[in-house]
Amino acid sequence: MAIENTIHEVMEQARTAFNVYNQTSYTTRCTLSDEIIHQLKQVRTLLIDTAAAETHLKQERLNAEFERTLHQFNTYFKAYANGNWLLPRIDTVKKDVRKTYIPLGPVVVYGASNFPFAYSTPGGDVASALAAGCTVVVKAHPAHPQTASIAAQAIQQAVQNVGLPPGTFQQLQLADAAQGKRLVQHPATAAVAFTGSYLGGRQLFDWANERDQPIPVFAEMGSVNPVFILSHPATSDMDALAVKLCASVSQSSGQFCTKPGIIVGLQSNEWDQFKQAFHHQLSLQAPSTLLHPGIHRQFISGVTQRTQIPAVQTLLNIHSDSNIAQPVLHEVAAQTFLNEQSLQEEVFGPCTLLVTCNAKEEMLAVAQSLQGQLTCTVISNEDNDSYLKEWMEILQQKAGRLILNDVPTGVEVVSAMQHGGPFPATTDSRFTSVGPDSVLRFVRPVVYQQFPNHLLPDALKNENPLQIERMVNGQITKNAL
Predict the structure, then answer these.
(1) Measured at the alpha carbon of residue 48, what is the angle toward residues 297 and 247, in degrees to the nearest 5?
(2) Is residue 412 a part of any domain in this protein?
(3) What tens digit of pLDDT does each residue of 344-402 get?
(4) Which residue range(s) make up the domain with 173?
(5) In terms of C-beta density within 10 A (0-12 exposed, 13-18 middle, 19 or more buried), how is residue 207 classed?
(6) Distances (CA, A) of 288 to 57, 117, 252
(7) CATH number of the domain that residue 40 is part of
(8) What is the pLDDT of residue 233?
């Protein structure tokens, strides 16, 4: 069967299934979530062993990611069930006007290479889209096809066991960009979710906007996640800071979208001590195998481009012709950083850049020059609130998550999380791809004006059959009207 026909048939099945699935109750959707969790647990060992072979990620890391994946399904569907994300609004003082959210339609999810579970076939994008009432078509990542296939079969079995249409969840293994374009531009596709590189996310965004009817693309494209060391810890703590940041940079071979790619400090004896300790810690890291040869090529290319800038000093750089990588460390003066826009580009892998400033004004200039980021981190033992607020006023315009005296890696799956930031970190900084609020990407508001009670969605009916909190004439309440 031609791939064009396969894409068309899959998307038409997703559209047909959506007409059924978007009408399901929260009880049915939670049952689906529980069954998906059950089916994934049934193949846990096989999934982790297969993912380890395909991605070269360690078993310990994959086990933690698997638990996170189950947690996402559990929490996202529960968030739907309690209606917190809906917060229906009802105003009856003049005209009877009521607002709630409805699902967009079939969602295409692009799996990520660096998270075979949490951001791929059984990942958070799939969980949040299904929780919202959307059907899902996953474009499996070619770096771990067998892992994707096993996970997809588990989810499809869950869909079948709950008695939902097969088109509720489907997966495609596509070979080239042209096929991806047809998938994004198919008339049935209502939204796209993506985690990966800037080039990949931007291409999907452009394809979606070339359509006669453009659709939203929620692309998380990574960032350099700068760390600003504003005031130095006590001398005895400098080594501890170096260890902590080294672990954040080198964890999973630096293949996290929240890896600290830039560390900014003010020239001083303490900064020199930190650099020496940080260099030492990175040099102790054992060689590691990257996700796949394509990632390795991009890593070597990014490192090479950086070293070709004359004013960039290489402090640590060990290359290999194979898929093996070791940490790379560069240093540059603030003025060079400000003049070289390419130094703000992410190098995906175990690589980071030290930016040395001669004055506070240079550090502020570096902060002001930043493009959109997922995270910005401040290390400071200052008790001067006004000093920290000055930095926060700048950095909150640059990132979706601000961190004080901690590291950006380790994105907690909680309702307060924001995993997204201004472009080019993501294509829409108003939304998150982690946490229960990620459901909001796949719904849109609809107002029902002057409708009789029996024709309203359950969330807006007078008797409040869902027993959820609602904004009624300006007051939050669960009471019936």
Answers:
(1) 55
(2) no
(3) 999 999 999 999 999 999 999 999 999 999 999 999 887 667 888 899 999 999 999 99
(4) 3-221+429-460
(5) buried
(6) 9, 20, 8
(7) 3.40.605.10
(8) 55
Which tens digits make up the pLDDT trace of 251-292?
A: 999 999 999 999 999 999 889 999 999 999 999 998 889 999
Residue 417 lies in a domain: no
Q: Is 49 exposed, middle or buried (0-12, 13-18, 19+ CB in 10 A)?
A: middle
- CA-nearest of 329, 202, 313, 145 to 254 is 329
Q: Which sequence positions are flagged as catalytic?
A: 220, 257
- pTM score of the predicted model: 0.94
Token pair, residue 204, equals 């999907």
369 & 342 share domain:
yes
Question: What is the rounded end-to-end Cα distance, in angstroms, of the chain?
Answer: 56
Q: Cβ(418)–Cβ(68) under 8 Å?
A: no
10 shares its domain with 148: yes
Report yes or no on 293 lying in a domain: yes
Task: Convert the pLDDT of each residue in 12-21 to its tens digit.
Answer: 999 999 999 9
Q: Do 183 and 102 sit in the same domain of this protein? A: yes
In a domain, 207, yes or no: yes
pLDDT recorded at residue 232: 61
Q: Are residues 180 and 241 in the same domain?
A: no
